[in-house]
Amino acid sequence: MDRDVTERRVVVGVDGSPSSYAALRWALRYAGLVDGVVEAVAVWELPGLYGWSGPAVDMDLDAEEARDKMRQELTDVLGADAAGSVRSHLVHGNTTDVLLRAAEGAEALVVGSRGRGGFARALLGSVSQQVSQHATCPVVIVRAEQG
Q1: Listing from the earlier edge strand, what are the strands of the sheet with 108-112?
Q2: Which of 3, 9, 57, 122 is the most exposed place for a label (fewest CB within 10 A)?
């Protein structure tokens, strides 16, 4: 993720969960207030990738499909015009590590309160808890809209 150090970046983690969609909408509104750009970061990791056997899928094909799906989700959540202004990044690695690196020098890191995994009763997901403790920029944790 190349960075222009003079621009104000708002980094948001997206994973397809309702709270990440709420975080994406919050990040877009905030970026508008600070005259910044939104960088949406989705992280993927293949279970067992570093185990005894090779990956069971074509990683290039999966990444391409995931990029297409991410772009479509951004459009579905934000509308075509707003989604066009969002920089999207699909990164392989550990979610917490990738988001922390992406947020270095950012105005803020925005994440949902709970992602796709975890327990329904948990107030914070493991990623939101970890980034809130280790980020070098302000962190905003957004809950999914109830409705």
Answers
A1: 87-92, 37-44, 9-13, 108-112, 139-142
A2: 57
CB-based contacts of 68, cutoff 8 Å, min separation 6: none
Phi, psi at 142, each rounded to 5°: -110, 130
In the predicted structure, residue 22 carries a pLDDT above the cut 70: yes
CB–CB of 50/40 below 8 Å? no
Alpha carbon 44 to chain centroid distance?
11
Q: Please give the structure tokens belonging to residue 44.
A: 């993927």
Q: pLDDT tens digits, residue range 110-128?
A: 999 876 554 444 445 689 9
- Please provide the DSSP assignment of 33-68 as one string: HTT-EEEEEEEE--TTTTSSS--SS-HHHHHHHHHH
What SS3 state is found at 13?
Answer: strand
Strand locations in 6-142 (E):
9-13, 37-44, 87-92, 108-112, 139-142
Q: What is the pTM of this model?
A: 0.83
